[in-house]
Design a protein that fits this description.
Largest interface: A-B, 26 and 26 residues
Structural class of chain A: mainly alpha
Region (Disordered) (chains A, B): 1-23
Strand content of chain A: 5-15%
Order of helices and strands of chain A: HHEHEEHH
Largest sheet of chain A: 3 strands, antiparallel
Biased composition (Low complexity) (chains A, B): 1-13
Shape of chain A: globular
Domain HTH arsR-type (chains A, B): 21-115
Strand order of the largest sheet of chain A: 1-3-2
Distance between the termini of chain A: 42 Å
Organism (chains A, B): Streptomyces niphimycinicus
Helix content of chain A: 40-55%
Keywords (chains A, B): DNA-binding, Transcription, Transcription regulation
Oligomer: homodimer
Number of helices of chain A: 5
Radius of gyration of chain A: 15 Å
DNA sequence: GAAATAGTACGCCGATCGTCAAACTATACT
DNA sequence: AGTATAGTTTGACGATCGGCGTACTATTTC
């Protein structure tokens, strides 16, 4: 069922497993704020922002179980904060920067800056 | 126990009933985001921001019961988003703009802007 | 002191949350 | 085909959430 259009060399292609994402216009501020109000999810978002690239779930390595990790990534996806796509056995994650910036200008950046500032204040423990 | 410094004429002074507020340094980003992720509380915050003045709880008039209203105001206070003080039988509420701006620069404004934009998009129903 | 006003405290409810372990699915590698 | 890798699903758990009504407290006004 491969319906991919842009082959990218030796890396595995996207597969048929589908993931539901809210359309840009369907993203709601309260859902985004709720998604960001959990420390584990904030960690994911900050990592994604720092790397500014697609990352697999496992590369982020939260101190919770695999199933809890799955849960947090789903909350982030369903709230519209991240985009996920299957690639081989992995699932790539990326921030929906453009969509968020279009809907809520400056919000993501100020949240990320606030998180960084707070981490500094609290002594670098990131929690 | 009136320890008020700026008498403002015929209106009642602050009374002895005490309200716990987190110190500025104790305010946590995740608590603020959680506080703002509820539509009723967002309504309160937006109203406070628009009026840019102290308001009583009852002036804001949420479509929930009195006790639920009390609950929401407490969440906002305990998260550090608003400051509350008793004045006679009323309780005055104000945004902690300075503290929030010092801790999380630009955050409150971008959240308020985002809420306004979303209200526009969604047709002015404020929910 | 009595009535009115403004908000609190205390349970209670059903729903959602964050967490886990166990069993499972999908893909890749050999 | 068989094994390894990566993530999902399900169902459970205790905790928290947003909501309510009722009874209560504090203050002002009469």
């Amino acid at each position: 069922m491969q319906t991919q259009t842009t082959p990218t060399g030796p890396q595995p292609q996207a597969t048929g497993r589908s993931l539901e994402h809210p359309r840009r216009e369907a993203i709601r501020l309260e859902d985004v704020l709720h998604a960001l109000s959990d420390p584990m999810r904030m960690r994911v978002v900050r990592t994604l922002a720092e790397e500014s690239a697609e990352l697999t779930c496992s590369v982020i390595d939260l101190p919770v179980s695999k199933s809890t990790t799955t849960h947090h990534f789903r909350v982030l996806r369903e709230s519209g904060v991240i985009h996920q796509i299957y690639r081989g056995t992995a699932k790539m994650n990326a921030l929906r920067r453009e969509d968020l910036e279009a809907l809520f200008p400056g919000l993501l950046d100020s949240v990320l800056a606030a998180a960084a500032l707070q981490e500094g204040r609290l002594g670098g423990d990131r929690g």
